[in-house]
Design a protein that fits this description.
The protein is an all-beta fold and 127 residues long. It has a single domain, classed as Jelly Rolls, CATH 2.60.120.10. Helix content is 0%, strand content 51%. It contains no helices and eleven strands. Strands 2-1-3-10-5-8 form a six-stranded antiparallel β-sheet, with no helix packed on it. A three-stranded antiparallel β-sheet has the order 7-6-9, with no helix packed on it. It is globular.
Length: 127
Amino acid sequence: MQTIDLAATYVHLDDGPAARPVHVGPDFWQTIDRRADLHVGRLVMIAHNDADWPVWEAHPAGEEIVHLLSGALDLVLDEPDGPRTVALRPGQAVIVPRGVWHRAVVHTPGDTLHVTYGAGTTHRPVE
């Protein structure tokens, strides 16, 4: 058994009992739609946030849990009734609904823990 840095190696949770490490390269999110091994199940990861996210993201296949470990940020959800801002402080989490575009505005750099159904993840630039 070895330790895993969830910021550099994600963990994929199958829809069954398995959990396996997944190496993450710089093009991971841009090529996730070609990763048949990740089309079911969830990814567990830690992201360091030292600046506002430069893109919106959406996960059309499932909800995402975003848990703030440290720092301070606002998660902006582009919901059908208009944008909603959720202030996250350490120890707080939010469930991002399936298919809702979201991004982070960082007030104090820190880390977030994500549990996401990554299949079909898409991005668009922040305008």
